[in-house]
Design brief:
The protein is mainly alpha-helical. The longest helix has 26 residues.
Length: about 425
């Protein structure tokens, strides 16, 4: 086997390279819609079939080399980081559930927030936390179990509550100064984070405000369907530690480790479980993440073969040939990062992939770099927040026991943000940066 072939070098741009993605979407999304059952085709099987197709259609490599190339994509450092986070998140979520931390936190939220402000309150909390910690994954891990608990006690649909948290999580992921997407967008465009934040916030904040008002209106008829139990303050401590350390800016892995330790100590003190019961809870949570890990690995390998076969380059070349005028340039940047995100399932990688090309387009058509950075970040977050195989959607679905397709229809904030971003290009808003 020639290991030199297993490099970032790609084949010539080819639209056929996008075939595995089409196979996956047809098998999983289209089939589910046709039969009106989102659980009919397991997402793991859809990715497996698409991955086999990707390996079979890859040219220029032997079968063994194709499999190695596929494996190199699955073993990408970003993929592996997500898997470690999934493992830690599974251990924390299950141990927190076993010792009563989730129920205690739900009861606290129901005591603090009036029934009619539950929806708006959870959305606002998700926005604030994600803005503080700069990661949508950390926010989803912390809040989705609480949101699901609130849904069970209020009669709210679980997909609705889960989507509400995801939307708020992407608000902060899009705007936070410490978000990977913000850093990638500003570095590739050569602008200051502060200026990108100002341009971005003029689009994102009105979108979030509109969705917030909608949640306030929707929440007027909500009433708690179960009697709210007394708050066990000690059992709330693990969640307070997780949220507090996350807001302080600690790495999500360290945040989850502290959360796991605090659930163990608190659970043993309260008698919720003994030492071995704690270990058993963590083991159950880790095993429960098995499907999510398999999906992440197969998606990473499949998308690597799409890149290797020239699928991403095909998108870049096709779109840039049709750029015309400033608006056209901005729409081209939006389309580039959106399609790159669909092909990589990672908004940060998508920005890094098309960022240099977006910068050249901005220079050629005199687009303000603050606006181009804002477009890159916004559209990458919009797509990442809606694709059923994105890490955020997958972990939210796992924690809530849903199919990703059940959640997509309730993702109001990403949809509204995308509409606002398109209108900002059409009407040259904000004027200062257009």
């Amino acid at each position: 086997m020639d290991l030199n072939k297993l490099t970032p070098i790609t084949n010539k741009p080819s639209g056929k390279a996008l075939g595995p993605l089409v196979v996956f979407l047809c098998l999983y999304l289209v089939t589910s819609i046709i039969v009106n059952d989102f659980y009919k085709v397991p997402i793991t099987v859809a990715f497996l079939v698409a991955s086999i197709y990707a390996v079979a259609t890859t040219k220029g490599l032997s079968l063994n080399e194709r499999i190695m190339q596929f494996s190199s994509g699955a073993a990408n450092k970003n993929i592996m980081l997500m898997i470690w986070i999934f493992i830690m998140a599974g251990a924390f979520a299950q141990s927190a559930k076993s010792m009563g931390a989730i129920d205690a936190t739900v009861n606290l939220a129901l005591h603090i927030l009036p029934d009619n402000l539950l929806l708006a309150g959870v959305f606002l909390a998700s926005c604030f936390i994600s803005l503080s910690i700069g990661t949508s994954v950390g926010t989803i891990v912390a809040l989705v179990p609480v949101a699901v608990g609130i849904a069970s006690k209020t009669g709210i649909e679980v997909p609705f509550m889960t989507a509400l948290v995801i939307g708020g999580a992407f608000f902060g992921d899009n705007l936070s100064f410490i978000s990977d997407t913000t850093i990638a967008a500003t570095r590739t465009q050569g602008c200051v984070m502060r200026d990108k934040f100002r341009a971005n916030s003029l689009i994102a904040v009105p979108a979030a405000l509109l969705v917030f008002i909608y949640y306030v209106i929707c929440g007027t008829d909500i009433t708690t369907s179960h009697e709210v139990a007394a708050i066990e303050w000690g059992k709330v401590i693990p969640y307070l530690i997780v949220l507090g350390t996350a807001i302080l800016g600690l790495h999500v892995m360290l945040v989850l480790l502290l959360g796991i330790l605090s659930t163990g100590i608190t659970g043993i003190i309260y008698g919720s479980f003994d030492f071995f019961g704690w270990f058993n809870a963590m083991g159950t949570g880790i095993i429960g993440m098995g499907e999510l890990i398999i999906i992440t690995l197969t998606a990473g390998g499949m998308l690597e073969l799409i890149r290797f076969n020239g699928g991403v380059d095909y998108i870049l070349h096709t779109l840039t040939q049709r750029v015309n005028g400033k608006r056209g340039g901005e729409f081209c940047i939006a389309a580039l990062v959106s399609l790159a995100n669909i092909c990589t399932a990672n908004n940060t990688i998508a920005i890094i992939t098309v960022g240099p090309l977006a910068s050249k387009i901005a220079e050629e058509f005199h687009i303000d770099k603050r606006k181009s950075a804002s477009i890159l970040d916004i559209f990458s977050c919009v797509i990442q927040g809606t694709i059923p195989y994105g890490a955020q959607m997958l972990i939210a679905a796992e924690l809530s026991g849903l199919s990703p397709l059940n959640i997509i229809g309730y993702l109001y904030y990403p949809a509204v943000l995308g509409i606002f971003a398109i209108l900002s290009i059409v009407f040259r808003y904000p004027r200062k940066y257009s």
